[in-house]
Amino acid sequence: MTRYASVYPLVTARALAREFTYEIGDEVGPGAVVEVRFGNAKRRGVVTKVDVAPPKGIETAQIERVVEELPKPLVELALWIAEYYGSTPGRAFGLVAPVQRKARGERPQPAERDGLPGEAEPAELSATQRSALDRIIGALDANESANFLLFGATGSGKTEVYLQACAIALARGRGAIVLVPEIALTPQTVGRFRARFGERIAILHSSLTEAERRDERARIASGDAPIVVGARSAVFAPVPRLGVICVDEEHDASYKQESDPRYDARTVAAKRAALENAVAVFGSATPRPESWGKLERLDLGGRLSGPLPPVRVVDLRREAGYPLSAPLLAELGTIEEHGGKAILLLNRRGVAPALHCRACGLTLRCVNCDVALVLHGDGLLRCHHCGHTEPRPETCPACSSTELARLGAGTQKLERELEAKLPELERIRLDADAVEKPGALAAALRRFAAADRVVLVGTQMVAKGHHFSG
């Protein structure tokens, strides 16, 4: 008896956002990712229903082949995303359906896959950590969906709770997903999971090539890598028998995807946990108001290593040496003389965030985006939004004045000032310009960890949960 199935083709056109009927074999079931003839081309599609009635008066085509099987919860999740976020099923299925390429031979691992070294042995938990973990384990063992807010200051031990929750899920024969805002900026987090679980973790993020992503997804689906660490797209990883989803820094805006299909990975994580009777843990020292109000809170309290150091606020309007104030130079001078490490955060790249004409008040702006052009050390003005570049003019393009002044300071300017005023200090810059090449970020952090009398200068990259002695 001939069988028929409803298939959503993975196409983006809204006019084609509907199911089409194809003839299938006995081995095809709901959730199958299939290759079908669609118009004059071959497309992938996802089977949503089987044993449907064939359309009258229309000759149906057979599916070409079965590419892969999606777990039923991921099929339901994709259909929910299409409805909830106003997208099309084809676009939503593109989030969960794997990319296919021809199998390749052995290859070296991506440079940043291993991350930085971490602790292999589980740490002894504090009373608050143990209480939080016991509540998570209780929900996991009850096989019930639950959402928790793991609330604690920076350094309160949230990551160790994630690690041990994942270990418990693994011991129960279930998998885990750990979401971090930006995987490239958190090599130490990756390193801790790698040290604890070895090759049983997979890394998913947007910088992977399609072939690398296919390889990682295959390891996940087969059960070889039951623990997944990644950025927002990792929430769609095909983990069999998912038990725990941990969302670190749940307040971070990068969990939202603004292009179609739009989604918020935090909302999707909660929905997936509900579909799979899993536990979702949202961790933050500064949670969103909606998380604070809706989720069951697990309080970790303050830092495990003691209170935060005292903070001194310096009014730079009274300082002549911007961006390096006299008190900061004094502290850095102590490091230069006696040894140690310092981290300077300046969330501006380049030499100066803007070039301003003192005569007519013009600020040089991008011709495409109308945002201020940033002056870089190579003498070029760059738009950090669209990538447009142009040479630094000698005179104002509006009034021809030569009084072009730099406004503010960026990381390159700060690096130069440190070289001039504290030449004996080693300087390591960490921003998008300095770590463009694969592996450069992890290499820079390893260099900083091993050095003495060193300053790490950078943008938000330096504030992503790093831990260095000294």
Brief write-up:
With 470 residues, the chain is an alpha/beta fold. 27% of the residues lie in helices and 23% in strands.
What does this entry look like structurally?
This protein is α/β, with parallel strands linked by helices and 470 residues long. It folds into 3 domains: 3-96, GIY-YIG endonuclease (3-Layer(aba) Sandwich); 127-301, Rossmann fold, CATH 3.40.50; 316-463, no CATH class. 27% of the residues lie in helices and 23% in strands. The protein contains 11 helices and 22 strands. The chain has helices at 72-84, 89-96, 127-141, 158-171, 187-197, 210-222, 265-276, 289-294, 326-338, 411-421, 440-450, and strands spanning 3-9, 20-24, 32-38, 41-50, 65-69, 146-152, 175-179, 201-204, 227-230, 242-247, 256-257, 263-264, 279-284, 296-301, 341-345, 354-357, 374-375, 380-382, 389-391, 404-407, 426-430, 454-458. Strands 8-9-7-10-13-6-14 form a 7-stranded parallel sheet, sandwiched between helices. The longest helix is centred in the first third of the chain and has 15 residues, at 127-141. It is globular, with a radius of gyration of 26 Å. Mean pLDDT is 87; it is low at 101-118.
